[in-house]
Specification:
The structure holds 3 protein chains of 3 kinds. By secondary structure, chain A is of the alpha/beta class. Chain A contains 11 helices and 15 strands. In chain A, helix 3 (about 95-105) crosses helix 4 (about 110-120) and helix 4 (about 110-120) crosses helix 5 (about 135-145). Chain A is elongated, with a radius of gyration of 24 Å. Chain C is globular. Classes of the chains: A alpha/beta, B mainly alpha, C mainly alpha.
Chain lengths: ~300, ~240, ~240
């Protein structure tokens, strides 16, 4: 398997504080890799190491099969990035900001207009970035990252602080890019829903350690939602469901259905109604990131 | 209100090296003479009968430069504390008038500079005593050389604070400040009306007190102008 | 490398740079106007009087201080909104970024020196000096002053990368520059003090056969030596700086 990004035992300490511990990232080509973890778990530190902005305390970082220590420039020529808050020069216009990178990257001028169009900032090209909204700055950051048509795009919390329409816009853009250009995207977020909607592969970081790395489908098994039923005389109702062969659990006065398909839910509800129980509420219960962590660590210990 | 605002200002300048600068400036001026007298004490002693007077004059040759440079650095520090963190909008959003905010900044700077002048006076006295310049300590002259330049430079302080608070780009007040330093250094060829000449205590009547009154008067006017301009502007 | 320098200039030219550049000739011009030729005791010295009148404040204080302001300005926008992050994630080495900023700074100091020359010349025209302009000597002074700022700019660039604010590098600059006022009076220490070199190299004196107004040994050891030290220290710091 060809990995675009591969780290081996990458570790970063700030003095005594361990920011990232023994990280083994593996990002296959053409994937949208969702890098999930709560704030402060080491995502940004990892990304800084991938970009050569920081050197790992030990361990290795390889991108496109090349060592970042030895061939940083060759690697960076093929990487576009947006790290944390968008970086920009407030005293320059959007166009001029892109021009500062374009000169170094040596791509034709018309590329500036192209990327501005991709992120829908063409109308604001000649306005100073100082006055931009956060969403516009974020989009400008993505435009800068796309200038040289990189093979790997690294986006750190790209929807942070955006309004819902901005989030949707960026999300569509990110999903579109690998299909149109074949690029690989590394995307970090502290929101499970966000990764769930965009990523194809997922890595989960917790307190500096990678506790999960697999396809999105595997992660969804952990993140599986359940249907909860609030009914009258709940314990009795639960037994009646079990008696009819419908799989369910009973927890703190609510019934949890393990099967979530429409059919199965309808079947359970109608059976309860027939048996004379009153159904008050049917709810989908989403698991929080913390729940998934708990579950993952629990299962790890069990193994 | 004013008291609380000033407390807030003093908290903000914590660990920014303000007090260190006040100390460094005062010590620096005297240290310059420590080197001077350390290297060629015997020669300098032959230059004048009035050794104390000559020593104070030597000290005073650096005081105007140090004060003007100190003002440039401190005003720039103070406004960079706000500009870097985008904190202007936060203070201005508090239920205080912008005039008060400006007054608090000015007062804090005036206090820091005053303490620095006071320290310089003490260091001057101590090193003078160490050098053994004579029994009779000219305390009136010592006071004059320690505090007159301070009052005479209040106009420069008011002007620099004005420029620094209204500039987004600190390069402008600093460049103006550097030009002011050159003026202060060239005081002897400057016309009397230029504020950068005043800390040198020179004027055509040879009366240092005049510079003190000018410093206070023009300082008040420039302070008012700066404050009104600051209140008038939108906060970015 | 050229592209990198173009980018630096592109970012810098929108930073009120002309205001900083013009401050030098402005001071030289005003200083020159104060010259009183009645003191001239020999014919043909008018140009030298103009040069000497402006030189002291300009070379001793202004040039070292303004080179620091320039260095802070070329780093200001990088510190502001993550500029370093954006710049260094591009395919450039840190060494080249450092060098291109340094070269651009030195180019601007050269422009300031040339404008200083122009200011002197225009003072002479206004004052109606009829003597021929002593070009070789003044060239020596202007270029010498420029060479003397090589180490000072390197140090200030380092400090400006280290500190976000203008005030901190300026403080260090002042702490080193003010003693030059004393150092130039000392034959023992003056020649070894890097911050006194702009004045020494712009002041008309010394062996007329030397390329500049200071002996070669002094130029190489004091200016050259401090340049190597400051440049390397800044370069090493920048290599290791965590962005």
């Amino acid at each position: 398997m060809e990995y675009i990004v591969e780290t081996k035992n990458a570790t970063k300490n700030f003095g005594k504080e361990k920011a990232v511990v023994g990280l083994d990232l593996q990002i296959p080509k053409g994937e949208i890799y969702g890098f999930l973890g709560p704030n402060g778990s080491g995502k940004t530190t990892t990304i800084r190491m991938l970009l050569g902005l920081m050197k790992p305390t030990f361990g290795s970082v390889r991108i496109f099969g090349k060592d970042i220590k030895k061939e940083k420039i060759e690697i960076l020529k093929r990487v576009g990035s947006l790290v944390e808050n968008p970086s920009y020069y407030p005293h320059l216009t959007a166009y001029e900001n892109l021009e500062t990178s374009r000169k170094i990257l040596g791509v034709p001028k018309k590329r500036i207009h192209e990327v501005l169009a991709i992120v829908r900032l063409s109308d604001a090209a000649n306005k100073k970035v100082k006055g931009f909204s956060l969403g516009m700055k974020q989009r400008l950051g993505i435009a800068a990252a796309l200038l040289h048509q990189p093979d790997l795009l690294i986006l750190d919390e790209p929807t942070n602080g955006l309004d819902p329409s901005g989030i949707i816009e960026i999300r569509e853009l990110i999903k579109r890019l690998p299909k149109e250009t074949g690029m690989t995207i590394l995307l970090s977020s502290h929101l499970l829903a966000e990764i769930d909607q965009m990523a194809t592969t997922v890595g989960i970081l917790r307190k500096g350690e990678l506790i999960f790395q697999d396809s999105i489908e595997t992660m969804r098994m952990y993140a599986k939602q359940t249907i909860s039923l609030n009914v009258s005389s709940s314990e009795k109702a639960w037994r009646s469901l079990l008696a009819k062969g419908i799989k369910a659990e009973f927890e703190k006065g609510t019934i949890l259905l393990s099967e979530r398909s429409n059919e199965k839910v309808a079947q359970a509800v109608s059976s309860l109604v027939q048996d004379g129980f009153s159904v008050y509420r049917v709810q989908e219960e989403k698991k929080s990131l913390e729940d998934i962590f708990l579950q993952m660590t629990k299962e790890e210990q069990a193994v | 209100m004013m008291g609380r605002l000033m407390q807030a200002e003093f908290i903000k300048i914590k660990r920014k090296g303000f007090w260190f600068l006040a100390f460094l400036g005062a010590l620096g001026v005297v240290a310059m003479q420590m080197v001077n007298y350390g290297v060629r004490k015997d020669y300098l002693f032959t230059q004048s009968e009035d050794r104390w007077g000559y020593y104070l004059m030597n000290i005073h040759s650096f005081t105007p430069l140090a004060i003007v440079l100190g003002i440039v650095i401190l005003t720039s520090f103070l406004s960079s504390v706000e500009n870097e963190t985008n904190a202007w909008k936060q203070i201005i959003a508090l239920p205080v008038s912008k005039r008060m905010v400006y007054l608090a900044k000015f007062t804090v700077l005036a206090i820091v500079l005053f303490i620095s002048s006071f320290l310089m006076g003490i260091f001057t006295l101590l090193y003078g005593l160490y050098l053994g310049l004579g029994e009779a300590i000219p305390s009136a002259d010592l006071m004059q050389y320690s505090f007159y330049p301070y009052f005479a430079s209040l106009a420069v302080l008011a002007f620099q604070l004005w420029v620094a608070t209204v500039s987004q780009n600190q390069a402008i007040p600093i460049t103006i400040g550097v030009v002011g330093v050159i003026f202060a250094y060239s005081a002897s060829v400057l016309p009397d009306w230029m504020i950068w000449k005043w800390p040198s205590l020179m004027n055509e009547w040879n009366d240092p007190m005049i510079n003190v009154w000018w410093g206070l008067g023009a300082g008040a006017l420039l302070y008012l102008a700066g404050m009104l301009d600051f209140t008038r502007r939108d906060v970015k | 490398m050229l592209a990198l320098m173009q980018t630096e200039w592109f970012k810098l030219r929108k930073s009120k740079i002309s205001f900083i550049i013009l401050a030098g000739p402005f001071i030289a011009f005003l200083g020159g106007l104060t010259v009183d030729f009645t003191e001239a005791d020999a014919p043909g010295v008018e140009w030298y009087l103009i040069l000497l009148a402006t030189n002291l404040a300009y070379a001793l204080l202004f040039l070292p201080l303004i080179s620091g302001v320039l260095a802070s300005t070329i780093c200001r926008y990088e510190h502001q909104e993550g500029g370093w992050k954006q710049l260094l994630a591009l395919p450039v080495t840190r060494g080249k970024v450092f060098l291109s900023k340094y070269l651009l700074l030195m180019a601007i100091v050269l422009v300031i020196q040339l404008l200083y020359l122009a200011a002197l010349y225009s003072v002479g025209l206004i004052k109606g000096v009829t003597e021929p302009f002593p070009l070789t000597i003044i060239w020596k002074s202007v270029l010498g002053g420029w060479v003397a700022t090589l180490p000072l700019v390197a140090l200030q660039l380092w400090l400006s990368i280290l500190f976000k604010s203008y005030a901190a590098p300026l403080t260090v600059n002042v702490v080193f520059t003010l003693p030059a006022v004393l150092a130039i009076n000392s034959e023992r220490f003056g020649p070894y003090y890097p911050w006194a070199q702009p004045f020494s190299m712009m002041y008309i004196s010394g062996d007329p056969n030397d390329l500049f107004f200071v002996p070669w040994e002094q130029l190489l050891t004091v200016v050259g030596g401090s340049f190597v030290i400051f440049y390397l220290m800044g370069w090493v710091y920048f290599q290791r700086k965590a962005i």
